[in-house]
Amino acid sequence: MFIDKAKIFVKAGNGGNGSMSFHREKYVAAGGPDGGDGGRGGSVIFVADPNLSTLLDFKYKRKYAARNGGDGMSDNRVGKNAENLYVKVPVGTVVYDCLTGLILCDLNEPGMEAVIAKGGNGGYGNKRFATPTRQIPKFAKPGYPGEEREVSLELKLLADVGLVGFPNVGKSTFLSVSTKANPKIANYHFTTLIPNLGVADLGAGRSFIIADIPGVIEGASEGVGLGHDFLRHIERTRLLVHVLDASETEGRNVFEDFEIINNELVKFNEELSEREQIIVLNKSDLIYDEEKLTGYKQKFEEMGYKVFVCSGATKKGVKEILDYAYERLQKIPMPILYDEDKIYNEAIHKVVEKPYEVFIDDEGVFNVTGPFVERLLKSTNPNDYESMQYFQRALKSSGIIAELENQGIKEGDLVRLFEVEFEFVL
Q1: CA distance 107 to 95
Q2: Do 69 and 316 touch, CB atoms closer than 8 A?
Q3: What is the C-alpha to C-alpha distance for residues 19 and 77, in angstroms, rounded to an integer?
Q4: SS3 270
Q5: 263-306, pLDDT tens digit by residue?
Q6: How far apart are the first and last CA of the chain?
Q7: CB-hemisphere CA count at 13 Å for 303?
Q8: Shortest CA distance to 116 belongs to which of 126, 100, 103?
Q9: Residue 376: in which H helix or E strand, if any?
Q10: Which residue of 27, 125, 175, 423 could cross-link 18, Cys pair, CB 3.0 to 4.6 Å?
């Protein structure tokens, strides 16, 4: 089954907790602190795998979590760093951050890697907090949490040439005779329900990739007939081959079809209208009026297009089209898909969370919340005098005490830090 869109949740590992430990050895009455730091949590890393061609695996597994780092140990032993979690995706996968809608990465080369969620750093052991005046610190730091986010995956095929045109104009037949691809072919509409890829091998090391894009219909740019699902697969192509049914056996009009398809390309992505196009007048074996065919060719050439007369059924004109396409590809640069303002920049777009927040509830209690306070509480030993001194200095240096005073706190007022309560003392 071909799946080209998926949404999953990724969670990096938390950092390990620092250890609170003291050296114990025979004949050593009072060993110093020797608690080691926690290990780093594992990151979630996406890898572009050329052996994959669909996002089907993500339809059944939607959560990917890396392991946490190991906790620090005594004797200054550092906790073990967790292994990174590598998630394989097809080459051509674009990863979006669901919260901002911005692009995290475009994995458009085999073996390309991108860190989607970073593992948390390990917390410090009590050895780190030893000073000449605080020689037996009875507290340590917890590990930092790993990043987590919901991401959207979108597969955009990697092809040099894209075949576009209405359903049943002969695109699949053209692909089958110009490459070794074996698409399903029959004389009815929407035979092609998924994009097909093939490699056109011209010999002497000359080759390029062709994508047969399922038939585009009027309204495709608004999503009609799975339009969005089809159109995005030609965004990477450098050259478009517009296949038209010159026989008009189904009552079609060559020029109307050409205009409708190009209008849909403009509506979906204006840059697609600027891509170079080759016109292929297909099914020439069914045309008995040569003057009519010549008239079509002449009119398209007057419009500035390179035109080829072709018959996929008899292979007439196929080689000439492939040779010309290869020559043009040597001169057409790779398209730039994304502007800078669409790329996720961690320094700019990261959601900044306040380290703490102070507010007075209905009971008149001063509440202090936030990630900084939570981490500070986890690293505080309420039964140890030096630990409580460190706790009080941290409240002052972080600006929490000053903020409480700005909000009018008085001596004896109750302060609540999550589940911890104490009376304020000046």
Answers
A1: 8
A2: no
A3: 9
A4: helix
A5: 888 887 778 778 899 999 988 888 777 888 889 899 999 999 99
A6: 69
A7: 16
A8: 103
A9: helix 371-378
A10: 125
Contacts of 226 (CB under 8 A, 6+ apart): 214
Record the tokens describing residue 391, joined without a space. 């706790």
| pLDDT tens, residue by residue, 100-110 | 888 999 998 89
* φ, ψ (nearest 5 deg) of residue 181: -65, 155
Q: Which residue has the tokens 């475009």?
A: 106
Please state the φ and ψ torsions of residue 348, each to the nearest 5 degrees: -100, -45
Smallest CA-to-CA distance from 76 within 26, 128, 144, 27 is with 128
Q: What are phi and psi of 97, to 5 degrees?
A: -85, 120
Task: Evaluate if residue 409 carries a pLDDT over 60.
Answer: yes
Whether pTM > 0.90 for this model: the answer is: no
For 355, how many CA atoms within 13 A lie in the half-sphere containing its CB? 10
Residue with tokens 């007939």: 225
d(CA 422, CA 298): 89
| Cα 258 from Cα 270, distance rounded (Å) | 16
In whole angstroms, give the CA distance from residue 33 to residue 339: 53
CB atoms < 10 A from the CB of 405, how many?
12
d(CA 411, CA 409): 7
pLDDT digits (tens, 9 = 90+) for 365-391: 999 998 888 888 888 888 888 888 888
Q: In whole angstroms, what is the distance from residue 175 CA to residue 156 CA?
A: 19
Q: Which residues contact 298 (CB under 8 A, 6 or more apart)?
A: none
